[in-house]
Design a protein that fits this description.
- The chain is of the alpha/beta class.
- Helices cover 40% and strands 16% of the residues.
- It has 2 domains: 137 residues, Aspartate Aminotransferase, domain 1 (Alpha-Beta Complex), CATH 3.90.1150.10; 239 residues, Type I PLP-dependent aspartate aminotransferase-like (Major domain) (Aspartate Aminotransferase, domain 2).
- The protein has 13 helices and 14 strands.
- The protein is globular and about 70 Å long.
- 42% of the residues are buried.
């Protein structure tokens, strides 16, 4: 009698079947078709100019040969995080910092700290789809609250309050949001912090894209790392702000009511994993300083690519770029004469352009596609041109 193997956890739907877009992309690449990839999110693949000597020399520290673990992270590294915030005008005591291997691990630690199995976390819609997977790993349920667009993005507070229940333990804010690029505004925070504090709900502020604002705005909040208006856990890390996802270092900054006890709990959780490598902790201060040039390149590229899209999708275009304030992505509204899946499959099949459909990010209505502003400019410009031509051709054909 043959063994059937282990029974896997029911936390996930273990469906490994590729979606139609992935299948078509594999076919294109197998045929050596040149596909213009407008979904590039890996900065190390985006043709940026990294300060190679500075980065490598920062990692060549003989102290990395000795292992003296600190569950919260080395004090010198946490002080580097504090100085990073100081350069941005925020006061963050190193004592309020916990280091993690990534923002994803930071979420996992916070879910462990704040929830019991079956509890709930509020997350924005639209937003990056990673939340459901991270929450499922901790046996936590996700409930969504919508962002509304009227020329700018806003939290729908009525819907948010209805989405909460007596099992809601935290609310996630992505600031700026991925993919809408919308920042949290001060008036929104006044209302949100009062509501969260009144219900003892923690605020998880994901700020990995906060360095990449296109223009200044006094109405905007760039970080909650120095606020005490509610129980706040602000998160960021090297993956986005330094363009170094391979370095695997992120952090949590705790503030507000109960933060001392929360830090003790996070230390206990982090001590179970001790996941942050010594070399990157020792190098953190120098990496954050050296990669300011990378941050500036990303800001300039995103600004340039956004301007390209706005010019291409001009007043007479059937497509339009939704207003965005920062980050690495742009949302393109296209005619709803086809579904998003039909548009994205058609663009890849007929125009050799890869974009992401809005439903990947849980947009409530159709039709939207998401493009990465991190894409190399020549590829981006040609890809946007092809999108415009393809959409106009489909519209004209349908009319005729």
């Amino acid at each position: 009698m043959s063994a059937s193997g282990p029974t896997f956890s029911s936390r996930f739907h273990w469906d490994s079947q590729p979606n139609p877009l992935t299948t078509l992309l594999r076919e294109k690449r197998a045929a050596n078709t040149r596909v213009l990839d407008l979904t590039e999110s890996n900065p190390t693949h985006a043709g940026l100019n990294y300060p190679q000597d500075d980065i490598l020399s920062a990692l060549a520290d003989s102290r990395a040969l000795r292992y003296d673990p600190d569950p919260r992270g080395m004090l010198s590294a946490r002080e580097a995080v504090s100085r990073y915030y100081a350069r941005r005008g925020a006061a963050v005591d190193a004592a309020r910092v916990i280091l993690t291997a990534s923002t994803s691990e930071a979420y996992a630690h916070l879910f462990k700290l704040l929830t019991n199995p079956g509890d709930e976390v509020l997350v924005p819609r639209p937003s990056y789809p990673l939340f459901e997977y991270l929450a499922a790993m901790e046996s936590v349920a996700v409930r969504q609250y919508p962002l509304r667009y009227d020329g700018a993005w806003h939290i729908d507070f009525d819907a948010l309050e209805k989405a909460a229940s007596d099992r809601t333990r935290a609310i996630a804010i992505v600031n700026p949001n991925n993919p809408t690029g919308s920042f949290l505004k001060r008036d929104e925070w006044t209302r949100l912090s009062a509501w969260a504090a009144s219900r003892n709900i923690a605020v998880l502020s994901d700020e990995v894209f906060s360095d990449f604002a296109f223009l200044p705005d006094p109405a905007r909040i760039s970080t909650l790392a120095d606020t005490a208006d509610a129980s706040v856990f602000a998160m960021s890390g090297l993956s986005k702000i330094a363009g170094l996802p391979q370095m695997k270092l992120g952090w949590i900054v705790a503030h507000g009511p109960g933060h001392a006890e929360a830090l003790d709990g996070l230390e206990w959780i982090a001590d179970t994993f001790l996941s942050v490598a010594t070399p990157v902790q020792l190098a953190l201060d120098r990496l954050l300083i050296a990669t300011e040039t990378v941050r500036e390149q990303i800001r300039q590229r995103a600004t340039h690519n956004l301007a390209t899209a706005r010019t291409t999708f001009g007043p007479t275009s059937s497509c339009r770029i939704l207003n965005t304030e920062g980050g690495w992505y742009a949302v393109v509204q296209i005619p709803s004469t086809r579904s998003e899946e039909e548009w994205t499959l058609g663009l890849l099949r007929d125009a050799d352009v890869l974009v992401q459909p809005g439903f990947f990010y849980d947009f409530e209505a159709e039709a939207y596609v998401v493009v990465s502003l991190l894409t190399e400019p020549a590829i981006y410009q040609e890809g946007i041109r092809r999108i415009s031509e393809y959409v106009e051709t489909i519209i004209e054909t349908a009319v005729s």
